[in-house]
Amino acid sequence: MNFLLHDIAGRAQRMDDSGCSLHEVQFEPARRQRASEEAGIGLARDGADYVAEALSPDMTIVGWFVPPEASGIRGLRARQGEQLYVARRKHRRHDVWHRFPDHPFSLESGFAVAVRLQLGWNIIQLEFKEEVSRRWREFAVCRVWLSPWWPLKARVYRPACLSEYEAWARLEHDPSALDLRAMRTTEAALADRPLLSVLMPTYNTPAKWLERAIESVRAQTYSNWELCIADDGSQSRQVRRTLRKFAARDPRIRITWRLRSGHICNASNSALENCRGVFTALMDHDDELAPDALFHVAERIVHQPDVMMIFSDEDKIDESGVRSGPYFKPGWNYDLLLGENCVSHMGAFRTSLLREIGGFRPGFEGSQDWDLALRVVERVPREAVAHIPRVLYHWRILPQSTASSMDAKPYARVAARRAVKDHLARHHPGVRMEELPEPHDGWRLHWPLPASPPLVSIVVSSLEPLDDVRDAVETVERITTYANYEILVMDTGLAHTPAELALRDWLSTRAMVRVINAAGLTGWSRLNNHAARESLGTVLLFLNPSLRPSSPDWLRELCSQACRAGVGAVGGQLLDLLGTIQHGGIVLGMNGSTGHLFRNWLPDANTIGGRPDLVREVTAVTGDCLAVMKSRFEEAGGFDEATLPDVHADLDLCLRLRSSGLRQVCTPFASLVFQSTRTACGRRARARRAAEVEQYSAVVRRWHLEKTVDPYFNPNLSLQTEVPVLGRRPVSIGCELSASQSD
């Protein structure tokens, strides 16, 4: 009977000497201490599973719990003596589901329970109520110490690392004291240092968070900055005292006092009038910058003089200073920006351009930075946008902030929709926006088709396997609402069994199907090229016969995306029978070859690498479902029959389309499901793997991919697995800037 508990969250300090974060522990109640010791984390003490010192009387235990499969859960609670605390449960934990996909309760196994601590030792028992017996059963014990001097300790001690992310950040990402010193030395040696402005509107900000925000700017390793603050008529005397105090301490802090509140857009415009820097970075009044944030922005400006917009990765920081929720973004991705504000934190813009477009637009409060980014990209080429793949911004989680939930500021959602809608009206008239249902947060864009809807040629490259081909044709004919299509089935004539002859006869009766004679042709690339030459359609769709569309408008979505200006190949989101993603875009360099983004993850699950439920630009899409305009396919030369007869021809085609200036798009709104998973074995499997390695090597040599980093995959993520997880990343800090200057 296994029980699983995750971690303790809150402002706490670890009591053990291991110096690591609280990891997940698997144990049995009768052998709790031994199991904890076996986990190697040294937490078992006096029968407790977790031991921590609290730095505040209020603590929240956040985690996940999976009961025995035989029993369900009617409730979760924490018991502290006679005091009972009811837990909030059924929080979605996709990471737990990914670990235990066969367990019926793993997906909604998350819980959170807030407790009030007394001075001294607090024994907190976590219990669950069984579905059948209705009895409460203990599944974990937490032993927490609250010192009588906790207010003093809270000021002195930084909260212990409470998550895998914080442990990783300290080890792999955050600059050390030596790195920060090297940055200061590097900057001091430069003859020309760009002045950077940090724009910050304030309004009745709690002094605690305002001070932390300002101090994070003053702590920057890069010193040539100015902090332009516009106070929007705050009634709080403490805010005014705090601002005057810092302005008196540091001449780089410049304050604009607004007499009346005009909301964040007007306040930001007042601060913008005061900005003298080459670039202006946006910052909220309760957030924090990483100490090396402005250094990396200045570094990018020096190395890329024509850059107009810079954005970085981000995470969240709570009231206790604990960091969580990182977002490791892909490189510049216009389609993703239409679905979410992937620029926001930290966004930095050339100041002259901000003034040229009129600054912030009143009426877009709550999403004013999204609207700003959309208006900037309308005026600059793609190569003028730069991404810094480092977490340079910490977004404060407060009950009233959108970092906590978009529901905290419902007007922000309305403003976001307006910002995108206005942008589309200016540059893509005819695009229709549709609100997505729960649990999605956002909308879907319906791109218009040409006045005369194009004929789509759906290419099925083989009659094999027979059952799949027949079922695929029937499903497409039954479910598809887009009417203007043809299905081309390639007949290699290699077999004349009764079953195959019956399938040929059946296909000949279907009005939308043409059987193409491909006798003597072998190889995936050659068959598909032959089908493309025989096709009558304006749009080609190469389709694996094992796939089945799951929505009626799947073909319209692929066709409309493929017909867009500037788009080359378009892929759908491919799922398995369990509903997990098998393809969300091809990633270069994964496991020594290529991988598929978000593989084995749920379509509605957010990840540290972004959301799978949004349209995004990718390096390549798989030939299992690849739509492309026939004219663009022919201009690119089709699939490479000679060098890549069986595999990686889809990747090669996408790279050729990309080299001609076309971007590849993967859309989750064309969802298809694999009906079977057939894997070769023995000698056949070894031969296929050898062919894949050989043909991928040919692609690497052709496109010089030996040291290429996939621009749509964040280098902080692991290339050893297709699910976005933290990876080991060697980072060179503080040397590029001086090297470029010495050259």
Structural class: alpha/beta
Number of strands: 34
Uncertain segments: 1-45, 679-684, 730-743
- Beta content comes to 25-35%
Shape: globular
Number of helices: 21
Average pLDDT figure = 85
Oligomer: single chain
Overall helicity: 25-40%
State the distance separating the first and last CA atoms: 66 Å
- Radius of gyration, CA atoms, in whole angstroms: 29 Å
Detailed description of the structure:
- The chain has 21 helices and 34 strands.
- A hairpin with a 5-residue loop joins strand 28 and strand 29 (581-583).
- It is globular and about 85 Å long.
Write a compact overview of the structure shown:
By secondary structure, the protein is α/β, with parallel strands linked by helices. Helix 6 runs parallel beside helix 7 and helix 12 runs parallel beside helix 13 (410-427).
Architecture blueprint of SSEs:
Elements: E1 3-5, E2 12-14, E3 25-27, H1 32-38, E4 50-54, E5 58-64, E6 73-80, E7 83-86, E8 88-91, H2 94-99, E9 110-116, E10 120-130, E11 136-146, H3 150-156, H4 164-173, H5 177-188, E12 196-202, H6 207-218, E13 225-231, H7 237-249, E14 253-257, H8 263-273, E15 279-282, E16 288-289, H9 293-303, E17 309-317, E18 323-327, H10 334-339, E19 347-350, H11 351-356, H12 368-377, E20 385-396, H13 410-427, E21 432-435, E22 443-446, E23 456-460, H14 466-479, E24 485-491, H15 498-508, E25 513-517, H16 524-534, E26 539-543, E27 547-549, H17 554-562, E28 567-575, E29 581-583, E30 586-590, E31 593-596, E32 616-618, E33 625-629, H18 630-635, H19 649-659, E34 663-674, H20 682-703, H21 736-742
Parallel strand pairs: 4-11, 12-13, 12-15, 13-14, 17-20, 23-24, 23-26, 24-25, 28-34
Antiparallel strand pairs: 1-3, 2-4, 5-9, 6-7, 6-10, 8-9, 10-11, 15-19, 16-20, 17-18, 17-19, 21-22, 26-33, 27-34, 28-29, 28-33, 30-31, 32-34
Helix pairs in contact: 6-7, 12-13
